[in-house]
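Q: My labmate handed me this sequence with no annotations at all. I'd like to see what the chain might look like in three dimensions before we decide whether it's worth expressing. Could you predict it?
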Amino acid sequence: MRVLVLGINYWPEQTGIAPFTTGRCEYLAARGHEVTVCTALPYYPEWRVPPAYRRRFLVREERNGVTILRSRIYVPEHANPLRRVLHEGSFVLASLLRAFGQRKPDLMMVVSPPLGLAFPALMLSRRWRVPYVFHVPDLQPDTALDLGMLSAGRVARVLYAVERLAYRNAALISTLTEAMRQRIISKGIATDKVKLFSDWAAPELFTIPLEDGGARFRAEHGFNGAFLVLHAGNMGVKQGLDVVLGAAELSRAAGGLTYLLVGDGAARPTLEARAGAAKLSNVHFMPLRPRAEFMDLLAASDACLITQQRVVADIVFPSKTLTLMAAGRPIIASVSAGSEVARVVREARAGIVVEPEDAHALLQAISTLRSEPRTRRTMGVRARGYARVRWDRGRILAATAAELAAVARPSTEPRRERPGEIPAQPVEEEN
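A: Here is what I predict for the chain of 431 residues:
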């Protein structure tokens, strides 16, 4: 099976969508499929192209059997709604042009956002007469409206029209959770057309010690003896990380309590400025760590945070949920009670769910876990057990590959001739 993937994020990006798009592609390649990815030069979550790629325009790479075709796109230093449109639009155009030069695939997989990839998906699908799967890890128009990044009006109507175009013409739509699946179905999409392609927990996370780990990380960064509260991952609008600084302000006099925010994103400069202005010595920021050090960081943490704005419910499911639970970390989820994160944490009994955007409630949960080490360990054990059952990498990827093969089958199976029909003459494949 020859598969062409369109997705803006890919290895070596460490957070968000990239690790899972990479994992799916490499899994297919390892099983003998021919996989080509049209993607951008890496930039996320720092919103900066790393030095190794900075002077390059078009890049071709091979990694673990996957052909990676990168294009330079517009990456704004400070993202706002207009710049995001230009950013995403530049990738939509770049991916279309890059894909046009490739051999005809048996199947396309398109990863949204950006939602505008609906256009190259439709154009290429019709040109080659092959199906496409539209994978939706983030319901982009719903997210923009719910977070107030976009108001109801002409632009919103255009986005929803693009969404309908993408869904209507896709052979299959995939998403991460049942709540997100039901949201898509509610838009008038047939139930059997929407499948779950779940993310997974990296196997090495299950080896992290449940207790007394991360000594090297603590010693190197001066955190010995501290109760370490960790937020790791993207620092954007959806995360609503002001609540963490609010809890830090309320607990500035609490000795030995340290808040560590690791990662990058559009909101990080504002958060750092606020923490500096408030002289919050109990708050520390770090960039993303290399993989081995990130494992030590998780082991060193006493409690881990998942925060979301109140309006975020069934439109996203942060992959850090899987990571933290597989690592056996007790979780404090400052999220909407009706969100998928809240449901999972409660079902697994893996932590404490508190009202979002409520610094007092967040601090109370932190204080509770700080005073109850036995409870923390029990939550960590439950979290890991839940992750092992629900997010096994091999099982999830095997199921995904089977679904993709079923979609591609009509275009890969030889056409059967009817009695009396003149056999078709061989035609050279497009290049």
